[in-house]
Amino acid sequence: MPIIACRRCGKALQYEQIKDLPYFPFCSKRCKLVDLGKWFNEEHRMPGEKPAEEDEANDGAPPHRE
Questions:
Q1: CB neighbour list of residue 25: distance below 8 Å, 6 or more residues apart
Q2: Can you tell me whether residue 49 is helix, strand or coil?
Q3: Percent of the chain topping pLDDT 90
Q4: Counting CB atoms within 10 angstroms of each CB, which of 20, 43, 47, 57 has the fewest?
């Protein structure tokens, strides 16, 4: 049986099929909601370019491109 760790608390999760884990890749609804809250509070972010309005608000200069 495969074993993975909960993405939030690290608890070991053993399963035969992914559908056996209702909150995959988390161990519980609580861990899933804590992680979602971090996305809402912008503690987790996807890498990428800043939106244009953020660049203009910082200094009014166009974004630096290499």
A1: 4, 6, 7
A2: coil
A3: 64
A4: 47
- Model-level pTM? 0.64
26 closest CA partner among 45, 12, 42: 12
Please say whether the dihedral angle defined by the alpha carbons of residues 34, 37, 41 and 47, taken in this order, is positive or negative.
Answer: positive
Q: How far is CA 62 from CA 23, 24, 25, 48, 53, in A?
A: 43, 42, 40, 17, 10
- 14 in Cβ contact with 3 (< 8 Å): yes
Q: Angle 45-22-15 (CA atoms, 0-180°, nearest 5)? A: 105
Q: In the predicted model, what is the mean pLDDT of the chain?
A: 86
Specify the 3-state DSSP secondary structure of 3: strand
